[in-house]
Amino acid sequence: MSPTRALALIVDDSAVNRKVLARHLESLEIASREAGDGLEALEILRSGGTDVGVVLLDIVMPEMDGYATLAAIKADETLRHVPVIMISGVEELDSVVRCIEMGATDYLPKPFDPAILGARIRASLTAKRLHDLEVESAARQAELLQTIQRQKDELSRFLSPQVAALVSSPEGAHLLAGHRREATTVFCDLRGFTPFSESAEPEEVLDVLREYHAMMGEQIVAHGGTLEHFAGDGMMVFFNDPVLQEDHIERAVRMAVAMRARFAELDAAWSRRGHHLGFGVGIATGYATLGRIGFEGRYDYGMVGPAVIVAARLSSEAKANQILLTERAHAVIADHVDVDPVVEVALKGLSRPVPVVNVLGLRDAASVGAGAR
Amino acid sequence: MSDGDIPVLDAAILAELRDATGGDAEFIVDLVETYVTEGAANLEGILAAAAAGDPVSIVRPAHTLKSSSASLGAMRLSAIAKAIEEAGRAAVSDGLKEEAELARATWLETLEAFAAAGLRR
C-alpha cells in the first residue's frame, strides 16, 4: 500500500463516536485521523502533512460547528475539492439537507451500517483520487505543451519558420512525405570568399559570415522564403513551398535585389577592413520534388529538381553583384523588372545553353537595388 | 413511550456494535471508559446550564450525550438527553432542572448496567 494513501478525517466532539467510527473504518481498511471540533479539523487539513481524502463531519460541536467548518472548507481554494460527508442522527435530516446545499457530498446516518459506511466513504475517496489525478494530468499536460512550444521555438531558430510551422501542422506529415510543385529556387554566395577565408583569421571569417547570415536571414524572412540551407557563404532559398505563393518568382527577385542592396552596406564596411568580397545570385523556376530528404537522425526539408541545379550553376556563373534569372522565369514577371538583354549561358552538366537575364532592378519604387552591368 | 419503557442498556445494540467492530471485547471496555469520562463532563454541562436556567448552553452537551449514549446502547439516557436538547433548542427553561436531575439518576443507572454487563474495568 502506498505511504501517501488518503485517509478519512473524523470530526466529532464525542470521543466515543470518533472511536466507534474509526473502528468501523479500520475494519474496512480505511485509515483515519480524528479532530474534536472544526478548528482542529481545519488545522489538520491545512497542515498539508496529511493527505485527507474525505472528511466525516458532525454538525453539533463546540468551538466551530459542522456548518462553519463546512463553509470554511468550501471557501478554501485548496480544500474545496475534498469530499465532506455529514455524520448525523436520523432526526437531523433537515440539517443534512442544508449541509448538502452548502456543498457536502453525502451523509451517513447513525447508527452506522458498515456496508453503507464503506460504500459512501470509498465513493468519496475515489472521487478525491480522480480529482487529484485530473489536477496532476492537467499539470502534466501544461508541462508537455510548454515543452512542445519550447521545442518549436528552438526548432524555428535552426529551421526556416515555414518548415518549423509545417512540422507541427496537421498537413505536415503529408508535405514532409514528399510532393511535386512548381517552385522558385534562389542560390547566392560570395565572390572571393575562398581566398578571403584562407588569408583571414578564423574569428574574422566567422564574424563576416555572422553579419552576412544575419542580414540575409532578415531578407529571407521578410520575403517569405524557405531557407533550405546555409553552407559557409552559400545559401539556398526557395519560394512557393511549403507555403503557396502565387508571386513566387517576383518574391525571389525582390529578395535577391534587396539582398544585393544590403550586401552593398556590408561590403562598404568590409572594404574598410580590407576584405574584398562580391555577391552573386542565381534564380530558376520549375517543377521540383519537395519534402524530407536525408537519413534517420538527420533530415532536411529539401528540394530536388532541375531548377535547383540551374539556380546553383547560375549562382556560380554570376559575377559580383549580378542576379542571374532564367529567361523562363523572367518572362512571367517581365513587366516588373529591368534587365540586361538575354544571353545564352552554357552551364556545366546541362546539354543545352540556358537563356538568362541579369536583373538590374525593380520597376516600382518599393524595392531599390542598384544593379551592376 | 415514556422513558421508563426504554431499556437502560440495549443489549442488541451493544452486541451489534461489538460485531461490527470486530468482536473485540477489549475495544468495548475501552469505549465504555471513554464514554464515562466524556459523559460525566457532558452531564456536568447539562446540570450547570439547568441550574443557571440557560436553555441555549444546554443544547450542545445534551446533544453529545444523546449521541454517544446511543452509540453504546444507553438508550434511556439517550432519550432523556434528546428531550433536554429539544427543550434547549425551543428555549424552554421550564422543567429543565427536573430533566437534568432525571439525566443524573439515569446516568448512574447506566454506569451500573455497564458494570453488571462486565464492561467496566
Write up what this structure looks like.
- The complex is a heterodimer of chains A (373) and B (121).
- By secondary structure, chain A is of the alpha/beta class.
- Chain A is built from 12 helices and 14 strands.
- Chain A has helices at residues 15-27, 38-47, 66-75, 93-101, 114-158, 161-167, 172-177, 193-199, 202-223, 248-272, 306-317, 327-332; strands at residues 7-11, 32-35, 52-58, 84-89, 106-110, 179-191, 226-231, 234-239, 278-295, 298-304, 323-326, 337-339, 343-345, 354-362.
- The longest helix of chain A is centred in the middle third of the chain and has 45 residues, at 114-158.
- Chain B has helices spanning 11-20, 25-51, 55-71, 75-89, 96-116.
- Chain B has a single domain, classed as HPT domain (Four Helix Bundle (Hemerythrin (Met), subunit A)).
- In chain B, helix 2 (25-51) packs antiparallel against helix 3 (55-71), helix 2 packs antiparallel against helix 5 and helix 3 runs antiparallel to helix 4 (75-89).
- Chain B has 121 residues and is mainly alpha-helical.
- Chain B is built from 5 helices and no strands.
- The interface between A and B is medium-sized, with 20 and 24 residues.
In CATH, what is the homologous superfamily of the largest domain in chain A?
Nucleotide cyclase, GGDEF domain
Helix content estimate of chain B = over 70%
Please describe the biggest sheet of chain B, giving its number of strands, its sense, and whether it closes into a barrel: none
CATH topology of the largest domain in chain A, what is it called?
A: Alpha-Beta Plaits
Number of strands of chain B: 0
CATH class of chain B: Mainly Alpha
Largest interface: A-B, 20 and 24 residues
β-strand number of chain A: 14
State which percent range the strand residues of chain B make up: under 5%
Question: What integer value in Å does the Rg of chain B equal?
Answer: 14 Å
| CATH superfamily heading of chain B | HPT domain
Whole-number total of structural domains of chain A: 2
* CATH architectural group of chain B: Up-down Bundle
Task: Just name the CATH architecture of the largest domain in chain A.
Answer: 2-Layer Sandwich
- Radius of gyration of chain A from CA coordinates: 37 Å
Inertia-based shape of chain B: elongated
